[in-house]
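Example S7 (structure tokens).
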């Protein structure tokens, strides 16, 4: 298990993390420190504990908003997947209808060609088709 030393709200903290996560933990600690600095500028010296709690609440609020957004996006994805399936089914049905129409037209053309061949065949001409 790795350890880092980080400064948050002017105080040094020794923090443990999984190996390879040191840089990530440093960035998180830096983010918390920056939030506390920003709150201190905005509200003045109202106590480290209070500033830390306010920073934690800001992070929790962002997390809650992100989770809500993720749930909305998951619902949107599910709706889009459903719409894609419906569109795919409609496209398949349209394709089947076009194929059926072409087959029907081809059969009619072949029927007309047979009739013309029979008619022309009686007159001694070369068959059509």
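Recovered sequence:
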């Amino acid at each position: 298990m790795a350890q880092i030393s980080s400064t948050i709200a002017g105080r040094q903290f020794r923090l443990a993390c999984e190996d390879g996560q040191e840089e990530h933990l440093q960035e998180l600690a830096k983010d918390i420190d920056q939030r506390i600095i920003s709150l201190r500028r905005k509200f003045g010296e109202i106590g480290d504990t209070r500033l830390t709690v306010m920073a934690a609440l800001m992070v929790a609020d962002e997390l809650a908003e992100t989770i809500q957004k993720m749930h909305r996006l998951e619902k949107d994805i599910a709706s889009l997947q459903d719409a894609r399936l419906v569109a795919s089914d409609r496209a398949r049905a349209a394709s089947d209808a076009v194929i059926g129409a072409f087959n029907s037209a081809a059969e009619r053309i072949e029927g007309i060609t047979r009739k013309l061949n029979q008619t022309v065949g009686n007159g001694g001409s070369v068959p059509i088709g």
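Notes on this example. The mean pLDDT is 93.
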